Structure formats: structure tokens, C-alpha cells
Amino acid sequence: MSVSHVLAILTETPQSSSRDLILDALPYITKTQQEPLHPFQTEVLAMANELLDAVRSLAVENETTCVTHAADAAKMLAENSSALHALEAQQTAAGVVRDGFSASALQAEEAHAKAEYEQSRSEANKALIANERNTLEQEQANSAKFMDDGWEGMDVHIVTAHLLSIGAEPALVAAVPQMLAVQVDQRGPFDNLTCRALTFSLKERADIVESLLKEIAKREKEAASFALGAWAYADVAGVRAASAAEQVANTEESLQSLKTELAQCKKHVSAQEKAVRSALVQEALAEEKVRQIDQAAKELRSLTEQDVVMQDIVMQPTLEIGALAKATDLPSTVLASPVSSNVGGC
Length: 346
Hints:
This protein is an all-alpha fold. It folds into 2 domains: 4-86 and 268-343, no CATH class; 111-238, no CATH class. It is 87% helix and 0% strand. It is rod-shaped, with a radius of gyration of 62 Å. The relative contact order is 0.14.
């Protein structure tokens, strides 16, 4: 009968005199299994059983610890995986929110740019109207000295230059120098006609300038109102654009924070998966160790059971020999001596 499993298990136990005795004796006990065991051999087997029981208790305790550890690791892995899935969902939601704010920010920026363009255009229009008004006011001021025959006695070049500036009839401009060269009381019908035409032209242009100035005043008022509205619109659009940009920055910061947390969570899950695999390996090793110890205990039980069988086989011939000795009147001790020698195991 082999006791290889027993020897393998006991070899791994801490060194002691009793362990060494068992390891040395077990191989010889298996060699004498054709005879009943000697009491010393029986004691060795009992010691081996006790040692195996102690080893098995420790192995079962270690197996229980490994099972518990594996269960705890699996539970923690499930919790980390659940947290990972939750963070992934949060990251997706945060990305959607960020994209929404980004779209709103883009629209706000476009609206702000359009508002600033309208504001700039309104300011340019105001400046253009102001230039027109200044030109007309300057013309009106220059024309004032020519009104009510104020041109009488003026240098002819000044008068003709003014007529040209206000767009007078070219024929009138050509006739004025001749009319001005003649004294008032000596002017003929053509000169008087030229004089009336000059007065009418100056008056007509003055009326036109006055009308234009009134119209420009109205346009300036409208332009100022539009510019004020454009400025307010641009200001509001700028505030909205800034607010939208801030929201995008905040959501982007939150998204990056979630990404960082998600990366850490993935590391934890990966580490926990390794821990679970290691715990399962340890649990399997612990189970295998208990199985090996049980196999070794089975080998020892086989040795003990075989010894009981051998004792029964030996005892039966002893009874028969005793009966024969009684029948032949021979001393039973003589007949039993070979059995006594076998019981000794030597």
C-alpha cells in the first residue's frame, strides 16, 4: 500500500521530532502489511492521523478564509464595476450637456458678432449723416452773406465760385460777371434778368439746404435711436456670449473631472479583477490542499483497515491450532509461538 500522499503532505509541515519519526517509519510500515502491525507501528499510524487531522484543520480554516476573501473580492469588484458604469453614464450625460452649451455658445457668439456689426454700421451711418449735416451747415453759413443782394459789390470771382459750388445754371454763372461789371442804375433788361435769376437761384438753394437740414435732423434722430438699440443689443449679446462661454468652460471642467475619475475607477476595477483572479486561484489551491489531505487520510485509513483484516486472518488459524493441540494434548504455547513472533512485527 502506497503512502505517497501522506508523505507529501507531512513533508510540507513544520519540522519536528514526531513528524520526522512518522516520515521515517511510514515507508517501513507499508512493507510489513502482510503481517499484523506491531504496537509501535500502530502508535506511529495514530500519530500520523493526529498530525493529518491538525494539518487538515488548518487547511480547512485556510480554505474558509480563501473562500471568504474571494467572495469579498468579487463583491468589491461588483461595486467598483457598478460605480464604473455609473461614471460612464455620467460622462455621457456630461458630454451631451457640454455639447449643448457649446452649440448655445456658438449661437451666442454669432449673435454677438452680428450685433457688433450692426452697431458698427449704425455708428458709421451716424458719422455719414453728421458729415452731410456739417457740409450743409457750412454751405448755409457761406450762402448767408450772398442772400438779400449781399453779392452786390463782391468780387466777381467769389460770386461765380459760390454759384458753381451750389450747382447754379451754367448760363447764369456765365452772365453774372457781365452783370456785376455794370452799375445798378445802368443795367439793362438782360442784366436785370440776370440779377433776378441770381437772387432766385440763391433763394432756391437756401430753401433746399434748409429742407435737407430738417430731413437730416430727422435721420440723425433715427440713426441715434438705432445706434442706441444696436449698442444695447450688442451689450446684451456680449453678456450672453460671455455667460455661454463660462457655462461651456464649467461643463468642460466637469467633464474632464469625470474623465479623470473614470480613469481612476477603471484602474480600480482592473486591480480588483486581478485580486479576484488571485483570490480564486488561492481558493482553488486551498480546496486542492484539503483534497490532498483527505486522500492522505484515506491512505492511512486503508493501512489501519488492512491491519484489522490481517489480525482477523491471523486469529482464525490460532484458534484452529489451539483446538488441534488440545486434541493431541500438546502445549498450546508451542503451537502459538509462531503467531507470537508474527505479532511482534520483527
